[in-house]
Amino acid sequence: FYQNTFSWVILPKKIDLYYKSDKGEDYKLLKTITNIISPKEEGSFKHDFKASFKGFNTRYLKVVATYYGKLPEWHRAGTQYESMLFADEIILK
Hints:
- The protein is mainly beta.
- Helices cover about 0% and strands about 25% of the residues.
- The protein contains no helices and 5 strands.
- The strands form 2 sheets. The chain has a 3-stranded antiparallel β-sheet, with no helix packed on it. It has a two-stranded antiparallel sheet with strand order 1-4.
């Protein structure tokens, strides 16, 4: 994920990972990764959110990133605008 708060791009609040083994099943929550990096961090940067699972096997994986929402009160553009969420890729090993 990418953050540049000046340009309204803020890291997600959290990322939920879901899984299922068969097409007809419902997704089950596997893990929630909570962001601990403040939107006040200056500059432009990328951040990798990582999760490890030993011996875990599944066929389907769903990644849901929860965006920050409206811009923070201290942002120069004001709170009437929505922030944006930029993600580049998902790497599975």
